[in-house]
Amino acid sequence: MSVTEGHRVRAQVLVCGASAPPLPEVDGLSVHRVGERPGKAEIDPLLDDGPLIVEGTDADLAAVVIRLLRKEKLGSTPIGFVPADPASEVAAIWGLPTDPARALAVALNAEVDPVPLIRDDNGGVIVGRGTFGPVRGVAYCDDEIALRGPARSIEVSPDPDGGPGLVVRVVKGLLFKRPVITAGRAFQIGCIPTRPSLDGVPFPRAITRWTWYRHTADLRLIRGLG
């Protein structure tokens, strides 16, 4: 059986980076090889409101989502994801296959399921996980104090359980400490200079204030709920 049997919608496929594994040949797809974390010149000409499938890392997916935001096409573009990394946080959070053929089948045949998109106050997004650590400061998740003092690490990710938008995990101790978990719509921190990491990519400079928050529109992720 063809992976596209019963699927009539033509989709654009973005294969990000030279190390992305080969995909099965599928009729009716327009495949474009682009660079890692592709930008405006590579992505914008391909945005036509039809389904868009991204093969690459979580950071590659985030780069494409940023272009959808800039072009105001987030609400009209279904997004499928084929993880190039078996350890993809996006795949783990949203229950996506990491096998390329299976992930492509989901992207082609499954239903759109809107999921929270997390933005920051520096123009970026996280689709999988944002992190700090080690860090010292004061942080809030909505009105709740998430940290006052030092922490070994802070992780922020979209909430897969239907909560307000994001989940914060703070590990304060040095050895064998369970994270303190809070959920809300926004996370804010004031801290000594540090560099957050967005979907595995370090921010280019140190910051002393940072905010992650749920965007007003969700990401139209194709992930298999019918």
Describe the structure concisely:
By secondary structure, the protein is mainly beta. It is 15% helix and 40% strand.
Percent of residues in beta strands: 35-45%
Order of neighbouring strands in the sheet with most strands: 7-6-17-14-9-10
Task: Report on the biggest sheet.
Answer: 6 strands, antiparallel
Number of helices: 4
The residue ranges in which pLDDT falls below 50 over 5 or more consecutive positions are 1-7
Q: How would you describe what is shown here?
A:
- The protein has 226 residues and is mainly β.
- It is built from 4 helices and 18 strands.
- The strands form 4 sheets. It has a 6-stranded antiparallel β-sheet with strand order 7-6-17-14-9-10.
- Strand 12 (166-171) and strand 13 (180-184) form a beta hairpin.
- The two termini are 21 Å apart.
Keywords summarizing the entry:
single chain; 6-stranded antiparallel β-sheet; 40% strand; disordered N terminus
Reconstruct the topology from this structure.
Layout: E1 11-16, E2 29-34, H1 40-43, E3 52-56, H2 58-70, E4 79-83, H3 89-94, H4 100-109, E5 112-115, E6 118-120, E7 125-126, E8 130-132, E9 135-141, E10 144-151, E11 153-158, E12 166-171, E13 180-184, E14 186-194, E15 197-198, E16 201-202, E17 207-214, E18 219-222
Parallel strand pairs: 1-2, 1-3, 3-4
Antiparallel strand pairs: 5-18, 6-7, 6-17, 8-11, 8-15, 9-10, 9-14, 11-12, 12-13, 14-17, 15-16
